[in-house]
Specification:
The complex is a heterodimer.
Chain A (H helix, E strand, L loop, with lengths): L1 H21 L9 E2 L12 E7 L12 E18 L5 E14 L15 E8 L5 E7 L13 E3 L18 E3 L2 E6 L10 E5 L11 E7 L11 E9 L23 E8 L12 E9 L26 E7 L5 E7 L4 E2 L18 E10 L6 E12 L13
Antiparallel strand pairs in A: 2-3, 3-4, 3-5, 5-6, 7-19, 8-9, 9-12, 10-11, 11-19, 12-18, 13-16, 13-19, 14-15, 14-18, 15-17
Chain B lengths: L3 H23 E17 L16 E18 L2 E12 L8 E14 L3 E10 L19 H13 L7 E13 L6 E12 L8 E14 L2 E13 L10 E16 L3 E17 L10 E16 L4 E10 L6 H4 L15 E2 L4 E2 L18 E2 L6 H6 L32 E11 L5 E11 L3 E2 L9 E12 H5 L5 E14 L5 E17 L2 E17 L21 E3 L2 E15 L2 E14 L7 E13 L1
Parallel strand pairs in B: 16-24
Antiparallel strand pairs in B: 1-2, 1-27, 2-3, 3-4, 4-5, 5-6, 6-7, 7-8, 8-9, 9-10, 10-11, 11-12, 12-13, 13-17, 14-15, 17-18, 18-20, 20-21, 21-22, 22-23, 23-24, 23-25, 25-26, 26-27
Classes of the chains: A mainly beta, B mainly beta.
Chain lengths: 396, 612
């Protein structure tokens, strides 16, 4: 026993010595971890106060530069906050002279709004004071105009609400149609509408967002859940535009390069009696046979080129279990086929983004007879990568 | 003579009795019943000061519930025991079945196979070593008063904080091989758990596997090896844009004892390494892997004089800055939370009382300068708010409030620490006095937050206390127990970004049994902090954020404040495990440089608890 103990102890000490002597730590050569930071000394002074050189107007590509001068190099931070949007942008650096340009982009969730007052606060590491200026954002960056790699889905920024007294009727957008889908199994209307932001719930982009709010009276028999309501973008609508156009740009052919993006709000601040049982489905529907849906090739006249019973519907399913606004992105090639045989689940099962003729965003109730609410905003399709909300539009 | 009929009746009675006894052994019940009511009131300058008048935040709150946890245990044979805890819960104001909830609180199967292999499946409690899987205490509470401990026990029960185990869902198997000579036994433990269920398009399943091998040569020599692997199963979500994480930790530990009649000598140690990697996403150029590895070692020696139960020990450890162990470094408490249960928002609902400095529901950020340290949990939140507890292993270091523990905020496995600690203890709870003291002398290994002069933080800590069973000294039949504990910390750093933070946490308690089974209980818990520190925030890839990515990152915090929480009341013990108590609670928070943020909470607390 004693010999065994001695042998094991000897092996142990040798092993420990070898281990400890052979291990290296790469960060020791640099001497510090984390970002470089320089704190203000007791003699620190701001010799030129914080200033902005021009009123920002990002629609005209007029970008401001913030300036300040110190008597020593320090780590400084300028936090810009919008008064109405609560959008935030942080500019930071380590220097004695501040010359920080701002391209209108934001950090976090909320986009800046046109016309809103804003505040910029300069703080310095180790300095107990701050320096503040007020200014107005004449025009926020335009984030809805299409680019070669980006497009907005219909009017899912919902900002058109400010222009229409009735916010639920179909809105023609050129040859496409943007509308709320209504599905009534009884006389009670479904509940899909546009909401104006308030102090409790703000829209990520702009001042409005979409909401589907379902009561237990709204039921459907669809296998993929209890459908409440949603929005649709349709093309090839009979009588309103060219018959053979589709929704995505002709250069977007590779499904591995196409991304669906949408902001979805979580389960916080649900009204009393509402349950966190909602799933939001972002759907793209393909015109597999290249023809209008008629009774000869479809069991229904759907009004456009998509036949639900024999053409593909591809889904991004988002169970709403999180809190706050969250951006969901999914590659087109990762979308799931609809489980409903009669509603997009019986197509040719080939990803054909060039044939997308309808896009739908709908809310399902996972537990029938529950009241659910699904808020969403700013649905987009991008090419080459997921939406980068904090990058300026010029970088898309 | 017994007639035939009587024989039949007698036989049937014996059989029935045997069956009844057998069934009674197969199924047995245990559980807990509790009724709890609180009434709280918020006061202070924070509601009405020179900067604003708060007209919308709540001033009063009433809360409470009745719960009944019924544990049903069925043991048909030695190989299997099935147990479940069914909970019936009724929130305050939801009597007569209105608002009652019925749910499963716990399900578990366990047993012994062939008298050799012990297993458990379902809701299990697991721990290994301090560096692999360990649920460390959220605050120094070694000598906490009885009244505060009792309040804390409610929160710990609700959050499955049983000892230093993590409550996980999975399977655990262990067995021992015994030998006749050379080696006493070799023990094996293996476990596999699912720590997080996938959310489509958001996050993949997260699993943890691991185990331990124990070699016990004799009571004089023990050797062990530990392995924990936490990983995200990316195939469980459709989207390839979801980030994933893998964290592996492997350690070896030993214990060498020399035992005599009066004195025991011990040498202990553990060494190990970790590898932690993140794959942000597999979309194009964003799929760059972030991977870091590091190691640690921890050696100590102790001497125990058995007649006095006097133990003296000393320890040295070196834990690398990039050593990461999800199971050992996850904090039990969220120091900063936007979902606390009591007086959640202030400043006309613009500020979260316990959120990260200045954050609020309206996304308004209190920006700039030396932020007044309103943010974060107070002492009362620590001992009474179950919603601020963390039940999930985290894949990055959580943000913490330095005033509560700046030396080991992530437990013994806190990274970027090297140094000595030593201490002594004497007595036990059964003796007149039980006391201990510990001194910590640590420093950083690499500078964090000073890229110019690269100065290191130096930590000095002293903590200790005693439990004085006065009734044993006086030979009095009723209990009189006095407790005292103190934890002092001092953090300094020279160089360009200087730091000087002192914090002192004091516990004081008195329990007096005035008549049989009726106690008067009182306790004080106070913390005083003075000085500054820099806020370190890590992103989801465990990287230290800069002010460019998070406006609060690296911010200088003026942490000068005083908190005082005192509890007092009475408790009647119906039995060892059943009691009713009524307490008054007062929590005062004062900020030295921001008196307009001062507040206090007054609370009355009723608690009836029955364990059977």
């Amino acid at each position: 026993m004693k010999n065994m103990k001695t042998i094991l102890s000897g092996i142990l000490i040798t092993a420990l010595a070898l281990c400890i002597s052979s291990c290296k730590r790469d960060y020791m050569s640099q001497g510090y971890e984390g970002p470089a930071q320089v704190s203000a000394s007791s003699n620190f002074q701001v010799t030129t106060k914080l200033n902005i050189d021009i009123t920002p107007d990002f629609a005209l590509d007029i970008t401001p530069t913030f300036g300040a001068v110190f008597n020593e190099p320090v780590t400084w931070t300028i936090v810009i906050q919008g008064d109405s949007s609560t959008g935030i942008k942080t500019l930071s650096g380590t220097s004695s002279t501040v010359s920080a340009g701002w391209d209108g982009s934001h950090d976090g969730t909320y986009y800046f709004e046109s016309g809103e007052p804003a505040i910029a606060v300069l703080s310095v590491l180790g300095w107990s004071s701050t320096d503040t200026i007020h200014f107005t954002i004449k025009s926020a960056p335009l984030v809805t105009a299409s680019t070669p790699n980006y497009m907005l889905v219909g009017n899912t920024d919902f900002e058109y609400a400010s222009k229409y007294t009735n916010k639920k009727f179909p809105i023609p957008i050129g040859s496409t149609l943007f509308q709320f889908a209504t599905f009534e199994i009884n006389t009670n209307p479904s509940e899909a509408f546009i909401v104006q932001q308030n102090d409790v719930i703000r829209a990520p982009e702009g001042k409005y967002f979409g909401r589907v709010s379902g009561s237990f009276l709204n039921l459907s028999a669809q296998p993929n859940g209890v459908f409440i309501d949603g929005v649709q973008v349709r093309n090839g609508w009979s009588g309103t535009g060219p018959n053979n156009s589709y929704l995505l740009p002709t250069t977007w052919k590779d499904p591995t390069q196409i991304y669906l993006n949408i902001w979805v709000r979580g389960i916080d601040n649900l009204p009393p009696g509402f349950q966190p049982h909602a799933t939001l489905n972002f759907e793209v529907d393909e015109d597999d046979n290249g023809a209008f849906a008629t009774l000869s090739n479809c069991n229904q006249v759907s009004g456009d080129k998509w036949c639900p019973c024999n053409e593909d519907g591809w889904f991004l399913k988002i169970p709403i279990t999180h809190k706050g606004w969250k951006l969901f992105s999914c590659r087109y090639s990762d979308l799931l086929q609809n489980e409903d045989w009669w509603n997009g689940g019986n197509g040719n099962r080939i990803l054909e983004p060039q044939k997308v003729c309808r896009m739908q965003i709908g809310a399902n109730c996972n537990v029938p007879w529950s009241n659910i609410q699904a808020d969403f905003d700013y649905a987009t399709i991008t090419y080459g990568g997921p939406l980068k909300p904090n990058a300026s539009p010029s970088q898309w | 003579m017994i007639t035939f009929a009587k024989r039949i009746i007698l036989t049937a009675s014996i059989v029935a009795g045997t069956v009844m006894i057998s069934n009674a052994q197969i199924v047995y019940f245990n559980g807990l019943g509790r009724a709890l009511v609180t009434g709280s009131q918020l006061n202070g300058n924070v509601l009405n000061n020179q900067n604003y008048k708060d007209t919308t935040s709540y001033r009063k709150q009433t809360a409470g519930y009745t719960i009944f946890d019924l544990g049903i245990n069925s043991q048909p044979n030695e190989s299997l025991r099935a147990s479940a805890i069914l909970r019936l819960q009724n929130a305050f104001g939801g009597f007569y079945g209105d608002g009652s909830q019925f749910l499963f609180r716990q399900l578990r199967l366990d047993g012994v196979i062939s008298k050799k292999v012990k297993y458990e499946i379902g809701d299990i409690d697991l721990s290994l070593t301090h560096y692999t899987l360990f649920n460390f205490n959220e605050i120094y509470n070694d000598h906490e008063s009885d009244v505060v401990s009792q309040r804390r026990s409610v929160v710990e029960y609700e959050n499955f904080n049983f000892g230093n185990n993590w409550r996980l869902q999975g399977a655990h198997v262990q067995t021992n091989l015994r030998f006749k000579s050379g080696i006493e036994k070799i023990g094996f433990r293996v476990f596999a758990t699912r720590n997080r269920r996938y959310v489509p398009a958001v996050s993949p399943d997260r699993y943890m596997i691991g185990g331990r091998v124990d070699l016990v040569q004799s009571r004089s020599f023990q050797l062990g090896g530990n392995y924990v692997y936490l990983y995200d199963a990316t195939g469980t979500v459709v989207s390839t844009l979801v980030p994933s994480n893998q964290n592996q930790v492997v350690t070896g530990d030993f214990k060498i004892n020399h035992i005599t009649d009066n004195v025991d000598y011990s040498l202990i140690g553990e060494v190990g390494a970790s590898n932690n990697s993140y794959t942000p996403s597999s979309a194009g150029k964003d799929s760059i892997k972030i991977s870091k590895s590091d190691y640690f070692y921890d050696f100590g020696a102790s001497v125990k004089y058995k007649p006095l139960l006097l133990k003296i020990w000393a320890n040295y450890r070196d834990v690398g800055a990039d050593f990461f162990s999800s199971g050992a470094q996850t904090r039990r408490m969220n120091d900063y939370s936007n979902t606390n249960g009591m007086f959640t928002t202030l400043d006309n609902n613009n500020l979260y009382r316990t959120g990260l400095y200045g954050q609020g529901p309206g996304n308004n950020v209190l920006i700039g300068g030396n932020l007044p340290a309103l943010g974060g949990a107070n002492l009362m939140d620590f001992v009474s708010d179950p919603s601020m507890r963390n039940l999930n292993l985290q894949n990055h270091l959580m943000t913490f409030n330095p005033i509560y523990n700046n030396i080991t905020p992530y437990g013994q496995a806190t990274p970027n620490r090297k140094g000595f600690n030593f201490g002594a203890s004497i007595g036990s709870n059964e003796k007149v006095i039980k006391a201990d003291v510990q001194v910590d002398l640590f420093s950083e290994i690499v500078s964090v937050g000073d890229s110019v002069t690269k100065a290191l933080r130096k930590y000095t800590g002293v903590k200790g206390g005693f439990t004085f069973n006065l009734h044993k000294l006086l030979r009095y039949e009723k209990s009189i127990i006095l407790t005292f504990g103190d934890r002092y910390e001092h953090t300094t750093r020279s160089g360009t970004n200087t730091i000087d933070l002192k914090s002192n946490l004091i516990d004081l308690g008195l329990t007096v049994e005035v008549v049989k089974q009726l106690d008067l209980i009182g306790g004080l818990k106070t913390i005083t902090a003075k000085g500054n520190e820099y806020l370190t925030i890590r992103n989801q890839y465990n990287q230290i954020e800069s002010s460019a990515t998070n406006s609060l990152a690296g911010m200088s915090l003026n942490l000068s404040q005083t908190q005082m929480m005192y509890m007092y009341g009475a408790r009647y013990r119906f039995s060892k495990n059943t009691y009713f108590s009524i307490n008054g609670v007062s929590q005062i928070v004062k900020f030295t440089n921001a008196s307009y943020m001062n507040y206090n909470v007054q609370q009355i607390f009723f608690n009836y608890t029955m364990i059977f």
